């Protein structure tokens, strides 16, 4: 399993539920500002996923996306939901994967009219290639309900604004279609999510939308015929299959967007922050080459036994304070017993078993950020001795 999760965000509860059904045993994670995420794993066990609800509009979408990125340090972010089609050849229920996202409300108003000045974000090359291969293989369609029609999958720009468009003849509708005539669909959140990804060292962001209406005045009728549910089911099926494919790609476990190094220079292969008492540690710097240590004794990091003992103490305190429930605490203690017994053996197979148990332990304690970080430190210490 990848050490870093993938974040999946939606705007509507209908969209949230469509994605949630693919997560095994989702667990609540409370952000300190009140936002509630759920953390679970996909059925193949390769990827941990974080699911969040942003609400309508680009601004709340940007805020919650930024919050999720900083809380979970994902290797990628997916935005999943429904949208309106801008062209008649796009079928209801089709899936649109955004190659570009237009924030189309940017512009300048002058005497001779309104001049568009949009912001544009482009999908990263690797996720785009993976999404197209997934479409060509057709493997994602196995997630569709029995007897469900296989929708088309389209790749192209999506326009994201601040209004619900439901007209083909209004001045706004005509302006969008004329100014952004290559856009396949229109919605209200993708620009905020794309901006958050861009500002976080170009975190890969993929927007997947199911077409639920034609943005032409017939939205009430198509919603009444159940197209919202069908469209979001199709989008969720494709997006979760894409998430698992993205998880199969190699990820080095470091924070996203490590800066490139000049020719002939070396860079450390890992970044490790350790704090006691649930404190958070952050380092802000420019480019750093070579080994860097701040208030840190290397021999302590490799002392897995001491870190495991410290983790036991912190687990007991979290259990006593109610942060960890009885069942989770008992399961965590069992995993720590496995870790201690496995590391007591000198063979590499024992340490391999310990690493597997530590990863299970981290999954159990993921809702308590301080404890999850402590488990990660133990994993790093054990790996340093392999």
UniProtKB/TrEMBL annotation:
Residue ranges of every copy of the Nucleoside phosphorylase domain listed in the record: 5-242
Single GO MF annotation: adenosylhomocysteine nucleosidase activity
InterPro entries tied to this protein: Nucleoside_phosphorylase_d, Nucleoside_phosphorylase_sf
Domain of life: Bacteria
Pfam annotation, one family: PNP_UDP_1
Example of a GO biological process term: nucleoside metabolic process
SUPFAM superfamilies for the chain: Purine and uridine phosphorylases
One GO CC term, this protein: cytosol
The protein's name: 8-oxo-dGTP diphosphatase
Organism (species): Sinosporangium album
